[in-house]
Amino acid sequence: MKRREQEREDMILQRKKDAEDSKRRMLAMYDNAAKTGVMDINIYKNSE
Questions:
Q1: What is the spatial distance between Cα 29 and Cα 10, in angstroms, rounded to a whole number?
Q2: What average pLDDT does the chain have?
Q3: Where does the record place the region Disordered (predicted)?
Q4: Mean pLDDT of all residues in 21-38
């Protein structure tokens, strides 16, 4: 039973980590786009 709970916690932690990674990637993408002037600045501001 304990092993199952541990697996569940690991999955939740992994999901949180994945979400943070993808958020960081998105912000980096917006950052690059804003620097090159490709994207509308409003989209950049709304992403934060």
A1: 28
A2: 83
A3: 1-20
A4: 83
CA distance 35 to 39: 9
Residues contacting 48, CB < 8 A, separation 6+: 27
Which tokens go with 25? Answer: 């990637």
Confidence of residue 33 (pLDDT cuts 50, 70, 90): confident
3-40 in b/e form (b: 16+ CB < 10 A) is eeeeeeeeeeeeeeeeeeeeeeeeeeebeebbeeeebe
* Structure tokens given for 18: 């994945």
